[in-house]
Amino acid sequence: MLREKYEAFKVTIEDKVAHIQMARPEALNTMNKAFWNELPEIVRTIDQNALARVIVISSTGKHFSAGMDTTVFTGPRPPGPEDRYVAAEAFRTNVKAIQQSFNCMEEARIPVLFACHGAVIGGAIDMITAGDIRWCTKDAYFCIMEINIAMTADVGTFPRLQRYIPEGWVKELAYTGRKIDAAKAKEIGLVNDIFDTQEELLAYVMETAREIASKNPIAVTGSKVLINYGRDHNTADTLDYIGVWNAAMFPPPHMAEAFTARAEKRDPVFPDLAPYRTDPM
């Protein structure tokens, strides 16, 4: 289950909505070692134990996140292999482990929604692109910072960002390190909408999360799975998989409850997703 306290996050669950807040405002919510370890632990614990039907991720302080904490680059490291090829293989393996910290959101059965404000920089772009929907405040700005520190973004920005915005914009941002403001982010499709204040932003995102949480969880999960599958496969393969999905998980009792609730002018009552086992036996 969830821990009572985390170093980089605060987590609350209410009305079947899990709210994960980045909680290091004094450090601009930069992504330190605790961040990379805690985020997948929190998301997987919520998802695997069916603790909520939706996850909302927001932040605290002046900025959403200024990206990677510099201590990740400059902190003490154990000596690595002397052979550069062995070292390169080990580096690749370590990068894949870091990538999993964000992959968990895309792999989760439930939607992950982002409420962004202030700076959304570097690793924060990797992070938000792994979610399902993004909104922001009018003061938000977005920057693929890695080019400005002489590196290539490697935690998910490139394969995911080009699903949401035109390739030309991905390349301009990646090659130049320029930042775009909230208006441009909405214009090119990175965020769905813009709000004047963080309070208004969170009110809308939480309302949307509660609305999603009121729907049939199997239908919501099916929608996420099949949208993502369709993104990565051709139409024929996706239609075939939709048929397979519905052959196994089409829920007549849940549909009957939805129709009855509408007729009775009440909220429908659906079963939660089941916790699933992570051990092999």
3D architecture notes:
The strands form two sheets. A six-stranded mixed sheet has the order 1-2-3-4-6-9, sandwiched between helices. It folds into two domains: 9-213, 2-enoyl-CoA Hydratase, Chain A, domain 1 (Alpha-Beta Complex), CATH 3.90.226.10; 217-264, Lyase 2-enoyl-coa Hydratase, Chain  A, domain 2, CATH 1.10.12.10. The two termini are 19 Å apart. Helix 1 links the parallel strand 2 and strand 3 (54-59). Helix 4 packs across helix 5. It contains eleven helices and nine strands. The chain is α/β, with parallel strands linked by helices.
List keywords for this structure.
281 residues, Lyase 2-enoyl-coa Hydratase, Chain  A, domain 2, alpha/beta, 2-enoyl-CoA Hydratase, Chain A, domain 1
